[in-house]
Amino acid sequence: MFRRAVTALCYTAARALLALRPHVHRHLPSVRTAPLLGFNLDSRWSVTMTWPFSSFQPHDYSLPNPSWSPEMMRLYDHYNSLCEQEGGGKSKAPWVRMPSYNRLLKYAKGGQCLSKMVQAKARLFTRNMKEEGASFEYVVFLNKQEKMCTCIFQAGHLLEGPPGYVHGGAIATIIDTVAGALTTYLGGLVMTANLTINYRSPIPLGSVVLVHSLLEKMEERKILIFCQVTSSDGSKLHTEATGLFLSISLGHLIGG
Ligand SMILES: CCCCCCCCCCCCCCCC(=O)SCCNC(=O)CCNC(=O)[C@H](O)C(C)(C)COP(=O)(O)OP(=O)(O)OC[C@H]1O[C@@H](n2cnc3c(N)ncnc32)[C@H](O)[C@@H]1OP(=O)(O)O
């Protein structure tokens, strides 16, 4: 369901971008979408394709790869078993796995002065490492009923800060990503306005932790999120954070 919603969002955004930039126009099949960037928990979205840009299906990085540790796999299997299954099984299950690609918009203008070369090479920060297991390995599960996300995060060796532990900026990044995913689901296109982080205990490099992200308050364009990073068994608190996200227009993103 969420995958379809994200696809519809990407599709709608792509159409708007392409309308602004007719010289890159391509044929996009017709699709029934909700209003532009208007995610709604109760809406029923219907799309006839899985990827709006071409017949090429991008790699979904939220699926297991050989670098995932047994603990990562155990948690993945656990949350996956609580999910809606493709084809209708457990359709009432509140959890969905969120797919994750290394680009959000293929033709995003990305501000006013992004060159074609930069556009072509642009990649999502958390998905830009070719070597599996070297940096951010993660999968985000969304609970639609509880309006929360849980991310299973395995921190690779390139994320070192203090010797043997994860860099605080990398922790901030995964928190921003998980909270950003939740707020995108709740509020459409968003940007982080404020992130306040308390680092309570260091995260060992290579370990698997859980990043929980929960809606605290939603007031017009403002979405307030509470986050906790814990050890995989929940016994140790590593990090706490609050994030303020603001719904934005597509024009804000592309410098219009
Ligand atoms: C398209 C396909 C998508 C597919 C999707 C798939 C999901 C895949 C997930 C990936 C997840 C990645 C997640 C990365 C998320 C980033 O990393 S975003 C990058 C980092 N953030 C930025 O660069 C943002 C830079 N800042 C800005 O652009 C602007 O300041 C903002 C945040 C958009 C706000 O500007 P604005 O819209 O003009 O808002 P403004 O009118 O100033 O303020 C509105 C209200 O908010 C309040 N406010 C604004 N800023 C603040 C603040 N910092 N603190 C407190 N209050 C504030 C104001 O006081 C005002 O309040 P009221 O007066 O209404 O009560």
What would you say this structure looks like, in words?
With 256 residues, the chain is an alpha+beta fold. Residues 1-53 have low confidence and may be disordered. The chain has five helices and seven strands; from the N terminus they run ααβαββαββββα. It has a seven-stranded antiparallel sheet. The protein starts with a helix and ends with a helix. It has a single domain, classed as Hotdog Thioesterase (Thiol Ester Dehydrase, Chain A), CATH 3.10.129. The structure holds Palmitoyl-CoA. Palmitoyl-CoA binds next to helix 1, helix 4, strand 4 and strand 7.
Secondary structure elements and their pairing?
Layout: H1 2-20, H2 70-81, E1 95-98, H3 116-121, E2 136-143, E3 148-155, H4 168-187, E4 190-199, E5 208-219, E6 222-231, E7 237-247, H5 250-254
Antiparallel strand pairs: 1-2, 2-3, 3-5, 4-7, 5-6, 6-7
Bound molecules: Palmitoyl-CoA (PKZ).
Residues 6, 9-10, 13, 104-105, 176-177, 180-181, 184, 189, 191-194, 222, 244, 246, 248, 252 line the site of Palmitoyl-CoA.
EC number: 3.1.2.2
Subcellular location: Cell projection, Ruffle membrane; Cytoplasm; Mitochondrion inner membrane; Mitochondrion intermembrane space
Keywords: Apoptosis, Cell membrane, Cell projection, Cytoplasm, Fatty acid metabolism, Hydrolase, Lipid metabolism, Membrane, Mitochondrion, Mitochondrion inner membrane, Transit peptide
